[in-house]
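Internal tracking record. Fields below are filled automatically when a chain is submitted to the structure queue. Please do not edit lines marked as system-generated. If the sequence contains nonstandard residues, flag them in the REMARKS field before resubmitting.
Queue: standard
Priority: normal
Entity type: single polypeptide chain
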Amino acid sequence: MSVSCNEFRDIVTRALGALPAHADELRDLDAALGDGDLGITVQAGSAAVIKALAALPDTASVADVLLAAGKAFSTANPSTFAALVGGGLLAASRTMTGKEPVGKAEVVEIGRAVAGRIAERGKSKLGDKTVLDALVPSLDTLEATDGTAAELLAAMIATAQEQVNATADLRSQKGRAAWVQERSVGHADPGATAYLRFLGALKEATTS
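SYSTEM-GENERATED OUTPUT FOLLOWS
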């Protein structure tokens, strides 16, 4: 199943419109491990991306959508998470030049580009208790699964939820969360949780 660029943009816009509902949850999770700004980052970033995508012409390409989203998210609120995700989207935009419509293969390619850039800029890897611990395994699940868009997203959500639960047992290795050392154990990673909530919002937006 594939969607046009404008359909892709509409789905992302609807998903981001629902994401700020989780801002308090993400703030509280981040406050336990860091400076508590993730809720604001997600709220401000979502609003900025929605505005940026609405300003694009109907002729915008998938690469244009990802470029606009990356720029908007990275500058909406000064935080490490915003810079990493925004940079990931900018990297993804370069891989999608001339590619349309958007199907499973394209989504995998976008996700891999985002993950690769986050790992590179954040100097992080699987097991460091970051968003990568949910993002990468969910992409593996997507790549190995067949079905409708709703079925694919449900499989990704199940994997991401499992990984978010698993991050609670890990000690944070990166960012401010690493400063609290052993006290980070017992708390799910906020970035991985934010990604899980985004997947849930995407599923709702896809099936609504």
